[in-house]
Design goal:
The protein has 2 domains: about 5-180, no CATH class; about 195-325, no CATH class. The radius of gyration is 21 Å and the shape is globular. The chain has about 325 residues and is α/β, with parallel strands linked by helices. The chain has helices spanning about 5-15, 85-100, 105-110, 165-175, 195-205, 210-220, 225-230, 275-295, 305, 315-325; strands at about 20-25, 30-35, 60-65, 70, 80-85, 115-120, 150, 160, 180, 235-240, 250-255. It binds iron/sulfur cluster (2 copies).
């Protein structure tokens, strides 16, 4: 990465922030903390793990009980940059921003985080990501939330975009003046609906009694790996710590494949077998999220298919559901 503007930008962020970026670790592309720019992988390939841990740690203490007071945990918000987030992961981030719009813990982290998107080719060829779940728009950036976006052009130069006041301030601080401002106009185009998303929504909603779920339930181990790596799985559990030294409340990632996920008082579990669990997972992604947020709950990143120990491939499952009469 020899581009002068990019070098200046990187020097600035490494001086000012704790940097999270995709980097190779034991041959795998992983999102994690990086110490220097040379470690960053600029291929634009999909990292094995999602970015959600930057905003939603897998476990965090929300508050402690001290005498008769509840003391908020405030020591957890360093200045962070999420650097090199590809467009599908920015899609997932855009969804999280809406889901956690009123969540104080998420928002505090978000305010201390600069999100820098990146594409190794511009305009983006979505075929390389094997997108299967919905259509993507032409004006990509207007439908994504980010602070700064960096695009590698065909002539090997880089174009910079700002998507927020924070992004603008940062670019100007690092003396990058020839950037474009992008105004977010919503997660989907106003002029047309995503027909593919709506058709799929209807198909999945009406498929509860179809054979496909029995077949998947026979092979799915309910190991929950797909949910752990999914950038749009955002369910969490709250747990009160019964600890005489340090009582308080923690929040940790939930997983709808695990047995306790749906247990309510009295021990009743609405999701009590694998068929119910796997159907629930698909309904959340392809029915409930589109209904509530008007955007797909799956960004087609393919992570879940890669980690599934029994080879369940979400793209193929979606294809089969689409064929159901
Ligand atoms: S990773 Fe595969 S086997 Fe494990 S819960 Fe998900 S679909 Fe089932
Ligand atoms: S492809 Fe799988 S991991 Fe990626 S967003 Fe969709 S459901 Fe989640």
């Amino acid at each position: 990465m020899n581009d002068k503007k990019l070098k200046t930008f990187l020097a600035g962020v490494f001086d000012d922030f704790k940097v999270f970026a995709p980097a190779k670790n034991d041959g795998k592309l992983v999102v994690g903390e990086v110490a220097k720019a040379e470690e960053i992988d600029w291929s634009g390939q999909m990292p094995v793990n999602p970015w959600k841990k930057v905003f939603l740690p897998s476990e965090e203490r929300l508050f402690s009980a001290n005498g008769d007071k509840l003391v908020e945990n405030k020591n957890i918000y360093p200045k962070v940059v999420a650097l090199g987030v590809n467009v599908l992961d920015l899609r997932a981030f855009t969804l999280l921003e809406r889901v956690f719009a009123d969540d104080v813990y998420y928002q505090k982290r978000r305010r201390n985080t600069v999100v820098v998107g990146y594409s190794p080719d511009w305009p983006i060829d979505y075929k390389k990501y094997k997108v299967f779940s919905h259509n993507f728009e032409n004006e990509i950036l207007e439908h994504l939330l980010f602070d700064v976006f960096i695009a590698k052009l065909k002539n090997n130069n880089f174009a910079f975009y700002s998507g927020s006041i924070e992004g603008q301030k940062l670019l100007e601080k690092y003396n990058i003046s020839d950037y474009k401002n992008i105004e977010y106009i919503g997660s989907t185009p106003k002029t047309s609906v995503d027909r593919k998303m709506l058709q799929l929504q209807e198909k999945v909603a009406k498929s509860a009694d179809k054979r496909i779920w029995n077949e998947l339930a026979k092979i799915c181990l309910a190991c929950g790996k797909c949910s752990i790596v999914c950038p749009t799985c955002f369910c969490f559990d709250l747990e009160d710590k019964v600890d005489p030294e340090n009582p308080g409340r923690i929040r940790k990632w939930g997983n709808c494949f695990y047995n306790d996920f749906s247990r309510v008082a009295g021990g009743y579990k609405p999701l009590d077998d694998v068929k119910q669990k796997i159907y629930f997972w698909y309904v959340h992604k392809f029915v409930r999220i589109p209904r509530e947020y008007k955007m797909p709950g799956c960004v087609s990143c393919g992570r879940c298919s890669k980690v599934c120990p029994v080879g369940i491939n979400i793209g193929k499952v979606i294809q089969n559901i689409s064929k159901i009469k």
